[in-house]
Design brief:
With 576 residues, the chain is α/β, with parallel strands linked by helices. The protein contains 20 helices and 19 strands. The strands form 2 sheets. A 12-stranded mixed β-sheet has the order 1-6-8-7-9-5-10-11-4-12-3-2. Strands 15-16-14-17-18-13-19 form a 7-stranded mixed β-sheet. α19 packs across α20.
Length: 576
């Protein structure tokens, strides 16, 4: 029933549809109660445990969030949260949930009440198995917010047109610009799935129309069906199968019975983008063409697959977030009499909801959530209570050496310790040991590209024979290095975790593996250890007391505690 509409919407006003003749008192409740200005400040947090099938979650809440998380067992529970009735029917229909089993799956039932109440949420158990569920949940929340906002504006437009200035005053229901929702994805294939769910939920009328849908399928769809590369791991196939382009932006506008794709940002309700695509629009100081005023009134921002941004360019993401909710330099068609007071006062960041979905927890993601996600309505962090280790995935007997770097001195700067401390330990202790040995084909994996460049420059300075593979290496270089490595012509091979993430190549005849730092993805650890097929193979990993999160994903909670708290600086594990 969906049609391709190629009509011209350039001269269309922001909201030009008649509001439905229905009791929509819950619209005001939803926006006022959950996204209004009557909030209390957040402070310290409380921790509780929530059990869902197969997983026990640790839920950390700011102290201004009271009560327990409520389950969504029936459509009435969604209605009590102020969700639009028509969208509830669409949700039940599109998800094909049987009411006796609840209208939402367990994870969704845990998260959605928090989303609907405007809380900042950090969820660090986003997996390929629950990705579809989370995308449906996010699309439902985004469409509901856009529809509720549109209905309120239309209702107030009707009031203003029928009343005199004396009868109606003080209506503040808008921002500086129209866009209210920003969702950031790493690849087009995930954005494509998200928009498909948006269309299923948003198109509720009998005459369903989607403008530029054909163009959207051509630019974001999977195209010709690709055969999975069976030489790569399952996680790689799931991540990169389909359209994995990371440069895109897309504006989406909602009307009564239609959804318009590829709308101008200033005429959009929802903006879908990648960090690189959005960064190219925002620009940098000194650029002739740059624009970020359309981000001045964002009320909901979501970061999906946030861990992948660590493998792309984290600075692009931070740059984009730093340009949200700033005062516009050149307001366009802004009715200041209806702009929300907290927006006029420059407090947009404090009233913006931020959602972060990641497959893992990291120091960068936690810092981002703590700094950039600052809603006064409170925050909730949801993470698995126990991390599964990957030691059982090592196929051959490997002598795994864990070498701890010295602790930080009280008078030492933290950044200096994290960078120079590890570097000096590697140069002064490990590298001389490697040089004294007769082992060749040594892989040195360095997760951070900054550290990779630093170590590479040291190798050049000392005239050490080595080769390198990074995410910037050409296919020809990769082929030549892999051949030379297999022939034993390379003693040291420096490489990065990003190279592993984007390529997943296997190397032949690896003699030893050294991890300069615990990798972000535990799979990277097993990937390289499974190349050590010879008897007596050894791997070495450098760590310090601040590497607990990464280390736990590799060795498990109990082993991690022993490595961190032990007085010994060297530990050996033997895989069988």
């Amino acid at each position: 029933n969906e049609e391709d509409c190629e009509e011209d919407y350039e001269n269309e006003s922001d909201f030009d549809e008649d509001i439905d003749e229905e009791d929509d008192s819950e619209v005001t409740d939803y926006l006022s109660v959950n996204f209004g200005s009557d909030v209390c400040p957040q402070s310290s947090s409380d921790i509780c445990l929530v059990n869902v099938p197969h997983t026990l979650y640790k839920v950390q809440k700011s102290s201004n969030i009271t009560g327990n998380t409520s389950d969504i067992k029936s459509p009435k529970d969604l209605e009590n949260l102020g969700i639009d009735r028509t969208l509830i029917n669409q949700w039940v229909s599109s998800t094909k949930q049987i009411q006796s089993k609840g209208v939402m799956k367990p994870v969704s039932s845990l998260i959605f009440p928090l989303l609907a109440k405007g809380k900042d949420v950090l969820f660090t158990d986003s997996t390929f198995e629950n990705q579809t569920e989370l995308l449906k949940l996010l699309s439902f929340h985004c469409v509901n917010h856009a529809v509720q906002t549109r209905k309120r504006v239309l209702k107030n437009n009707a009031k203003l047109s029928a009343a005199t200035d004396e009868e109606v005053s003080g209506i503040r229901d808008q921002g500086f610009t129209r866009p209210k929702i920003l969702v950031i994805f790493p690849f087009r294939n995930v954005a494509h799935k998200f928009i498909q769910h948006v269309l299923k939920i948003a198109l509720t009328g009998s005459k369903k129309q989607v403008s530029n849908k054909r163009r959207f399928e051509e630019e974001y769809g999977p195209g010709e069906v690709e055969k999975p590369n069976l030489s790569k791991s399952l996680s790689y196939q799931r991540t990169f199968l389909g359209n994995n382009d990371d440069f895109f932006t897309l504006g989406v506008a909602f009307a009564k019975n239609s959804v318009k794709l590829y709308t101008d940002f200033y005429n959009s309700d929802l903006i879908v983008a990648s960090p690189l695509g959005l960064r190219s629009v925002i620009g940098a100081p000194g650029d002739k063409e740059r624009d970020f005023d359309f981000l001045s009134s964002i009320e909901l921002v979501a970061l999906f697959m946030c861990d992948v941004f660590l493998m792309q360019n984290w600075e692009h993401l931070l740059h984009c977030l730093q340009h949200l909710n700033l005062q516009p330099s050149t307001p366009k068609h802004t009715d200041f009499s209806r702009v929300k007071q907290w927006a006029l006062d420059g407090h947009g960041k404090s009233f913006r909801q931020s959602l972060v979905f990641s497959s893992l927890s990291s120091a960068q993601i936690s810092a981002l959530f703590g700094k950039e996600c600052a809603s006064q309505r409170g925050f909730v962090r949801i993470s698995p209570l126990c991390q599964r280790d990957v030691l059982s995935q090592i196929l051959y007997p490997v002598r795994q050496v864990f070498s701890r770097i010295r602790d930080k001195r009280p008078d030492e700067d933290l950044v200096e310790y994290l960078t120079t401390g590890r570097y000096q330990f590697f140069v002064d202790n490990l590298l001389p040991r490697l040089q004294r040995g007769d082992v060749t084909n040594v892989v040195i994996l360095i997760p951070s590209y900054y550290d990779f460049v630093r170590v590479r420059n040291y190798f050049k300075k000392e005239n050490l024979k080595f080769s390198q593979l990074s995410e910037y290496s050409s296919n020809k270089t990769i082929t030549n290095v892999r051949r030379d490595f297999a022939e034993g012509n390379i003693k040291y091979l420096l490489t990065t975790e990003r190279f592993f993430f984007f390529k997943r190549y296997k190397l032949s005849k690896v003699g030893q593996v050294l991890f300069y730092e615990s990798p972000v993805y535990a799979e990277c650890y097993t990937h390289y250890l499974n190349m050590l097929a010879e008897d007596g193979a050894v791997s070495t990993l450098l760590y310090n007391k601040l590497d607990g999160e990464r280390l736990e994903r590799i060795v498990g909670e109990q082993q991690c505690k022993q490595l961190i708290n032990s007085q010994q600086t060297t530990h050996v594990l033997m895989s069988e």
